[in-house]
Structures are given as structure tokens and as C-alpha cells.
Amino acid sequence: xxxxxxxxxxxGEWLPPLSRVFHYVNTLRxxxxxxxxxPKHEPHSLDPRRKYPKVITDFKDLVENDPxxxxxxxxxxxxxxxxxxxxxxxxxxxxxxxxLIIFDAILxxxxxxxxLDSGISGITVPFNAVLxxxxxxxxxxxxxxxxxxxxxxxxIVNQWGAFLQSPASREYLNADxxxxxxxxxxxxxxxxxxxxxxxIEDLYVCDPNRDYWGFGSWxxxxxxxxxxxxxxxxxxxxxxxxxxxxxxxxxxxxxGKQYPKDVRKxxxxxxxxxxxGQPYSIFDMLNYDA
Length: 290
Prior knowledge:
The protein is mainly alpha-helical. The chain has helices spanning 18-32, 54-64, 67-78, 96-106, 126-135, 138-143, 147-164, 184-194, 200-203, 218-222, 282-285, and strands at 113-116, 119-122, 273-275, 278-280. 37% of the residues lie in helices and 5% in strands.
């Protein structure tokens, strides 16, 4: 199994290549378990001496009190392929409790840029990085179809979202060469993605001379605004018939196609077309409010 191929369960490039995802998740696990008296290769449980956030303990209690979910939560980690040749290159999270321990660390952690020999990446969906392997096992598929499980995960993600809207989330909004979002390497990546040749501060509303480039939170950076006059949606005299991306996103064309000649036009409400490598229809995207 190569560690250089794209992550097998992440269509649409939601996550970086496999080796970087494993490095991120395994590093988090090692950091969380560094003071544990138990061997690292053994599954760990939540520390009964520690007070965890309510969203974490609520999820734990739901699973512990439901025999079916408890069994699935164990089996989905048992079903993950393990490789004895080099554990550092593969997914090392070994239990549901370990995933919760990592979630606890993520809850108040700002996303950062990850610079490795294999390249530069930003993991902005860390819960996805942790859950992709267990969620794509047979038992995990059943576990994550449970409505109450999804409600608990939503509560966890919402709490993280509240943190990302706070000033405390700005730790990596700097030009640090290793993990800053305004490092020269990542600025070059943003400019390439936006097809922009000038200074980044002429593209987005930001100020390199201010702390955190003038952003009040990570969320403010993530939904950063363009300078006035850039990215016009339409001319005033054109008909109001456009559906546009709400963010700075890559061209949405089918896999293997080319932009712009293969952009789909005159899409019908129940047509099937591709976004981020997955099939969608207009009805699906608008929640049947077409």
C-alpha cells in the first residue's frame, strides 16, 4: 500500500495525500499519549482522573450505554488494516476512546500549515482526518449511520467552530515558514489557486503589518474577503441566472475533464453532475428548494 497516493476515502481532495494525513493524525496521537504509562501500541482509554468537555463525555456516554454502538465502536477500529513494517507511516489510532482523546485536543487547536518533505498542506478538516479510516470499515459505516452518533459529532464540531470564531484561534495566522498560513510557501499556494500574480494583500483584505494580518479569528481568515472590484459575479446588464460558488473554490468539472471547456452548462434540476469527485444534482444542492 503506497503512502504517496491520494487518501482513498476522500474524494474531491478534502484531505492531503495519505502520508501527510497519517503524519498529522499519528503526531496528534503521540502528543496526546506522551504521558501515558501504557505502551503506545496498545489501545488507550479516556483518563478517569481528567475532566473532559461535555461534548466529549456525552458522545462517550451515548456509545457506552448502547450495547450495539459500543460493539461497533470497537469493531470499526479492529477492522482497520495494520502494517507491521513501519507503523509511523500508517494510521495508528487504535480505539474509539483514543479518537475522543484526539478530539479533545482538536477542540481548542487552531488549524496550521504542515510542512513535510513530501510537500506543504493544510488540514482544515481534522475530525475528517481522524475518522476516515474507522468510518470506512464495515462496522464504521453502520456506526456513523446512527442519527444520535451524528448529533454528538455535530455538537463536537460546533464547539470547535465556536473556538475558530474567537481571537484564540489566530495562533498560526503568521508568516512562520513551518506552520504559518502566510508563510512564503503557503502564500504562493494561495496565489496559484486564486490565479493571482500580485501581492496577497492586494487580492484579499488583509494587512501584513498588523498582528495576525488583521484577522480577528481563524474563521475570518478562512472566509477572507476579496478587495473591492475583484471577482465580479456578473455584469449589471446580464440576466440574473447565475449560481456561483460562495467561496474561493477550484473549477468544478468532472474528474478527468478540463476547465473551462468541460464546465457543465444548462444543468437541469435532476441532472447528475460532479462536485469534488462526487455526484450531485441541483435539487440536492439546494435541499429541494429549487
